[in-house]
Amino acid sequence: MTEPVAPRKVRQALVYLAALHGEDPERIGRTQGLVQRWRGKSAEHERAWQEAEQRWQLVHCLAPQLRGAVQPQAFDPGRRRVLRQGGALAVLLAAGGWLGWMFQRTAPYQQDLQTSHGQALQALSLADGSQLQVAAESNLRVRFDHLRRQVLLLHGHVYFDVAHERWRSFLVSTRLGSVEVLGTAFTVSDRGGRVQVAVARGRVQVRDLQGGEQLLRAGERICLDADGRLGHLRGGGAHGPDLAHWQRGWWSFTEQPLDEVVAELNAYVTPAIEVDPGVADLRLTGSFPSARPQVLLEALPSILPVRLVQQAGSRRLVRN
């Protein structure tokens, strides 16, 4: 088992890093030689250096103004200059202590979750306080480090209620694009066709695979098509996900294309239902219990001009 790094050695490494990020080329050159020798003294020195670099990156992400406060200055024997340099060093060491606390608070964390076919909604609490509601047939991987929180959604449908952190962003990655937030509630759905993103509260930034970006606010929804391109923004307050419905086990659809509705339904029924291309773009609005998918299936012909055809063990929705 690796022994923990002594805090004083991390502080020493931070002092070296501050010198390397100064504006005096001569001093930077001298420090580079000192750092090389210092890191080579022991494995603990090397680990201390790596931890100090991570802390330095963290302070750059969180508070750029702190860099100016700890930037080293050329040596001057004058009393006032010495006091100023001492004050800067004190700030640096204090920052090192604060970063040590932050470093512990943002310890690496990982968790994988895969829900089964027809499984009831599963709640998942993450280490940062974020809350997830995970639908059936979903597969996700959670990876947190000191600088970033990331969830890889391989497949499925998830409601995210993200805890706010100023120093770490929260990123959801899918096969067709990504969603970045700081503190909000939203859903991401990938059932094999287009990826759907809908916002219940706050704001998210959606990025596609082609370099496109779109800011979404509460009540707005957008899709990423099969080529990884952003679709048209849909809004009006009714397009965002409803957490209360999710927690009670209800699907809520607002002008949702039929093929996307059925893709969600297929995570709960057997055999899977196919959708004829001629009805795939019909729009459905309504709420239905996810624990009883047959209710939705039986209601469709009374809402839309479709009928369910069954033959040879398969089921298909066609125009009525």
Q: Gist?
A:
By secondary structure, this protein is an alpha+beta fold. It has helices at 7-20, 25-39, 43-62, 65-70, 79-105, 243-248, 258-265, 293-303, and strands at 109-114, 122-125, 131-134, 139-144, 148-161, 169-173, 177-181, 185-190, 195-201, 203-208, 213-217, 221-224, 250-257, 273-275, 283-289, 306-311, 314-319. It is elongated, with a radius of gyration of 27 Å.
Number of domain modules: 3
CATH class of the largest domain: Mainly Beta
Q: Count of DSSP helices? A: 8
Computed CA radius of gyration, to the nearest angstrom: 27 Å
> What's the CATH architecture name of the largest domain?
Sandwich
Low-confidence stretches: 62-87
User: How much strand content do the residues show?
Assistant: 25-35%
The SSE order reads HHHHHEEEEEEEEEEEEHEHEEHEE
Notes on the structure:
This protein is of the alpha+beta class. The chain has three domains: 7-105, no CATH class; 107-248, Jelly Rolls (Sandwich), CATH 2.60.120.1440; 249-320, Phage tail protein beta-alpha-beta fold, CATH 3.55.50. It contains eight helices and 17 strands. The chain has helices at residues 7-20, 25-39, 43-62, 65-70, 79-105, 243-248, 258-265, 293-303; strands at 109-114, 122-125, 131-134, 139-144, 148-161, 169-173, 177-181, 185-190, 195-201, 203-208, 213-217, 221-224, 250-257, 273-275, 283-289, 306-311, 314-319. Strands 1, 2, 3, 4, 5, 6, 7, 8, 9, 10, 11 and 12 form a twelve-stranded mixed β-sheet that branches. β2 and β3 form a beta hairpin. The radius of gyration is 27 Å and the shape is elongated. The chain starts with 6 loop residues before the first helix and ends with a strand. Residues 62-87 have low confidence and may be disordered.
